[in-house]
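Please complete every field before forwarding. Incomplete forms are returned to the sender.

SECTION A: IDENTIFIERS
Entry label: holo-348
Bound molecule: magnesium ion
Molecule representation: SMILES string

SECTION B: INPUTS
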Amino acid sequence: MAFISVENLVKDYRINSRKKGLLGAISSFLIRESILKRAVNDISFTIEKGEMVGFIGPNGAGKSTTVKMLTGILVPTSGSISIGGLSPYRDRKKNASRMGVVFGQRTQLWWDLPVSDTFDLLRYIYKVPEKTFKHNMEMFNDMLGIGDFINQATRQLSLGQRMRADIAAALLHDPEIIFFDEPTIGLDVVAKEKIREFIRFINREKGVTMLFTTHDMADIEKTCNRMVIIDNGVIIYDGTTNEIKDRYGRERSLIVDFGENPGDICLEGVTICGEGEKKKKFTFNKSEVQVSSLISRLTQEYSVLDLTIREPEIESIIREIYEGGIDFDKSLSGICQEVVSEQRSLQN
Ligand SMILES: Nc1ncnc2c1ncn2[C@@H]1O[C@H](COP(=O)(O)OP(=O)(O)OP(=O)(O)O)[C@@H](O)[C@H]1O
Ligand SMILES: [Mg+2]
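SECTION C: PREDICTED COMPLEX
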């Protein structure tokens, strides 16, 4: 059986609606009206021990709601979750000792206390043995540089320092699984890279199972082999990060610097646009046009000074998926449409 198993998970939120103005406030007080919002709609997936999975989706897709159910903070409306045979919300205490969680938008550190005091408190709460505590603190210092600000109060830390301290705090008790909900939000490129490097290290060296939500595609590309995409509460993709590039990123561009103006060029299946008199951009579908034959034809017939091939970035593929521009398998897009209409009927 998989380490994490999620089956037909659903979460509905009840949202109280309030009418405008004083009269509206009084009538809302007397007659409570509410609507149901289905944030997670019948999702199923499994994660094996030691896997590192990127969980992505547009704003409001249901990522944080799923993470909150996986960590036992929220109780699902229906469906089941099993983590190593335990239910996160029914066996909350037992689960907490083997689970770590980082919410990038919130901190679990005590706001007014020095960071070192938070670590001492967590050490006490999780009953972390002295040897493990010492070893882990040394590792956090070496890899995350927390020693530089360990005596400062949390409220005095910069965002990057706070995030490093939060990640260290979540890992202090050597959890088997860690949930990251946007751990790189708002960080500069150097700080992001440092955190990604540490996450890779923890997964590789300690075999920690990870679920990682982010809006930064570089986070996923640099850390996770597998990507799960959720949209409108429904999983619309679950596969490898490379596969999504292969399946949906078929457009290639070839930029050519010619020695002289090549004049009009006509090539089947290729769109050509000028980027200057001697510079042209050739755009084509890699499954219809072979790049090697295109290059050999151009170099044989024209004087070519330089060539650059461009693949679509994962960021642009994902953007297209979010915007509904990529033709997913019929079954998947069918599900999406059903969900949208079901949500509308829930809201009406
Ligand atoms: N406590 C709540 N009460 C009511 N509705 C909620 C609550 N929390 C989330 N929602 C709604 O559920 C949906 C999913 O929200 P969720 O926070 O899971 O999205 P997300 O994928 O994490 O988005 P983001 O990328 O913006 O963090 C949204 O439409 C949101 O408005
Ligand atoms: Mg979120």
